Write a sequence for this structure.
């Protein structure tokens, strides 16, 4: 079975380490915050200028001056800090953020990512995504493996305008965990009950399968 | 006004000199930390052909979005422009020029502009549509593109507190682009929630020194929330 949004978030959370500064994109990546393992300390960076993002506020705590990059009202965790947008992107571009998780429309075997524009259809802008993919070394892309119509989003060449070139090394889809190296996709894990064959069929770019591929565990 | 006293008495005075086809740099992230009343004044003045440099363009009836129906904005340089139907219509119809710019690059363009740095190299946008027509160069084996900095005829800024000399303190994430915008305007206009006397703010706690500020006005703010998200009050962290 394909992973649910929550399961994708849960699997990403397994990549967290104690003391990590993490930037979570909008959508599924945001859910990762719900699955930080017990006893582990992780600090969330929100690129509008907050390090140490807390949970959503109660009705009484709502503060219009305190939002996250998705423009949602939030709170501050203990030990949080606030800074301007240039400082925020100095953290991101300077490679100080330990893990970045973000969504995408397409990725390809060369580590290219397209996530911000569908010409003629969706032209809202890249926000901080181009900075995040260019600045971070440790990035996990979360996405569905294929469209509803079965069209692969893991390609030999991205067809949409790129958000970043050659910067993606790890992709977690609803079907598989994949590493990108030497111009190929490498299958690391598969979703429980999903066969290697199914994954192959929905991966347009070259997929390397070596040995037995373990199922993800939660 | 006398000496370092930056306080003006009306919004008309605050935006005096703004004329057609000027460039305005605006602070704010979404609707958070925007100079609400300065934007209202620009709408009232009816200034046209403006180029705005701002992370976003407000929503249909609030923030910079209110300048769209009368076609006051000719061009916007922004990182994210969703959430605004009229904006989308004007952009698709080619009535509004949009230069999408990565958020970090936008912040750095303002910062560099205000600091007298004409351009900078960044890896952000290399190999993407953003790089088109820009100089590329390798440093230590990595590819970068040359981005030019931005200055504006005006900057409109929202801060929390100021003293009469224009020393500014921002509050929480309403800081965002505001300190950067403040440095990059030929005329920087700031509206705040409270103005105090010089000496009342702790010099160590000032985010933006008054040297960047030309005009200062105290306003009242709606502070509209774009995405109101709450948790039930009985759940604990």
């Amino acid at each position: 079975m394909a992973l649910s949004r929550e399961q994708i978030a849960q699997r990403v959370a397994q990549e967290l380490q104690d003391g990590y500064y993490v930037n979570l994109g909008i959508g599924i990546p945001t859910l990762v915050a719900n699955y930080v393992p017990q006893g582990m300390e992780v600090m969330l960076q929100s690129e509008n200028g907050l390090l140490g993002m807390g949970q959503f506020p109660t009705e009484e705590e709502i503060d219009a001056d305190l939002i996250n990059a998705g423009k949602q009202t939030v709170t501050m965790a203990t030990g949080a800090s606030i800074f301007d947008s240039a400082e925020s992107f100095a953290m991101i571009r300077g490679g100080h953020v330990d893990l970045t998780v973000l969504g995408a429309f397409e990725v390809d075997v060369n580590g290219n990512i397209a996530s911000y524009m569908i010409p003629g259809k969706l032209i809202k802008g890249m926000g901080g995504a181009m900075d995040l993919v260019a600045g971070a070394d440790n990035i996990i892309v979360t996405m569905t493996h294929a469209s509803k119509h079965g069209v692969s989003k893991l390609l030999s060449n991205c067809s949409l305008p790129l958000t970043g070139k050659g910067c993606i090394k790890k992709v977690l889809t609803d079907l598989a965990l994949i590493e990108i190296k030497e111009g190929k996709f490498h299958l690391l894990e598969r979703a429980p009950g999903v066969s290697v064959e199914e994954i192959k069929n929905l991966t347009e770019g070259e997929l390397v399968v070596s040995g037995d591929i373990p199922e993800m565990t939660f | 006004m006398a000496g370092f006293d930056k306080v003006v008495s009306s919004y008309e005075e605050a935006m005096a000199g703004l004329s057609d086809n000027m460039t305005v740099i605006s602070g704010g992230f979404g609707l958070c930390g925007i100079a609400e009343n300065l934007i209202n004044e620009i709408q009232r003045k009816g200034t046209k052909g403006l180029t705005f440099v701002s992370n976003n363009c407000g929503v249909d009836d609030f923030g910079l979005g209110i300048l769209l129906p009368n076609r006051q904005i000719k061009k916007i340089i922004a990182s994210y422009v969703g959430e605004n139907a009229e904006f989308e219509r004007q952009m698709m119809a080619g009535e509004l020029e949009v230069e999408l710019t990565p958020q970090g690059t936008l912040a750095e363009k303002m910062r560099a502009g205000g600091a007298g740095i004409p351009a900078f190299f960044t890896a952000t946008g290399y190999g993407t549509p953003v790089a088109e027509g820009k100089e590329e160069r390798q440093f230590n084996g990595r590819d970068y593109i040359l981005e030019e900095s931005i200055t504006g005829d005006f900057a409109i800024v929202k801060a929390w507190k100021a003293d009469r000399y224009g020393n500014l303190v921002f509050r929480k994430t309403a800081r965002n682009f505001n300190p950067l915008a403040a440095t990059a305007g030929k005329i920087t206009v700031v509206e705040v929630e409270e103005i105090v006397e010089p000496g009342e703010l702790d010099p160590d706690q000032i985010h933006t020194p008054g040297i960047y500020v030309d005009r200062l006005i105290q306003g009242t703010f709606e502070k509209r929330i774009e995405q109101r998200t709450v948790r039930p009050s009985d759940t604990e962290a």
Q: What stands out?
A: Chain B touches chain A through 58 residues (CB under 8 Å). The mean pLDDT of chain B is 96.
